[in-house]
Amino acid sequence: MKYDYEYISGKMTEFKSTFLIGKTIMNRLLYCISIGKGERCAVFAAAFHGLEYLTAPALISFAEYFSDMTQYHDKIKVYIIPMMNPDGVDIAVNGINPKSAVHRRLVKDLGIMEFSKIWQANAMGVDINHNFNASWKSILNSPSPSKYGGIYPESELETRALTKLLNKIQPELFIAFHSQGKEIYYDFNCMENKRAEATAEAIADKCGYSVAVPTGTAAFGGAKDWYIKEYHKQAFTVELGKGTNPLPVSQLDEMKEDTVKICMTAIDEVLKKGIG
To answer: What is the pTM of this model?
Structure first.
């Protein structure tokens, strides 16, 4: 089974509350599921990077689980975006399509033909998790399989779609799922919410993950960095699984279980401690 955009698109039809937050340069749709009707709000997003496509079915598993947790639906509204970078996932899973002008430009610009083992960026060669306006700087100067932050912050359709949603609903909790490392990041330039570390520790205790501080290129330009900077609310990056991306499908069941535990623990922490 290929856990690509086609797979995720098919799963989206199973949820009545699916809506669109945008689309990509390749006209792939950015799907979001909403579950619940409470005044409190949380957002979970995955597959920011092409090789990290297993985070998408892992987050779908949480959507399926939470759909049945009706005792929560009056308390909180949850938004779930399983695949933030469908173009990049498609390249990582299925390779280059020579019929696509966008793909042919990538081949010309990068001078390579084999993308499936290295591709983290979107179809423009921009790493969208370095494209958010949070101490933004372009690590590289041109399109690349990873770590090119674009020509300016929020230059990419995917980035703007997420920031638009987060600006609109301003959730109390935001989690971006990546792989790999079994780690949880909660801070950004000492701007993090006062409850963030405790929530991260609660999640770590539940799942056997570690709470860590990102360094180097992982320390800026990401989705959770931007949300912390803008709203000082609880935001986290969670690194599912362990090994080398793309992680083997043999880890998917464990990743699904961990994702459910992580999301539910985070929700419980928000609900029991009140707004703030």
So the answer is: 0.97
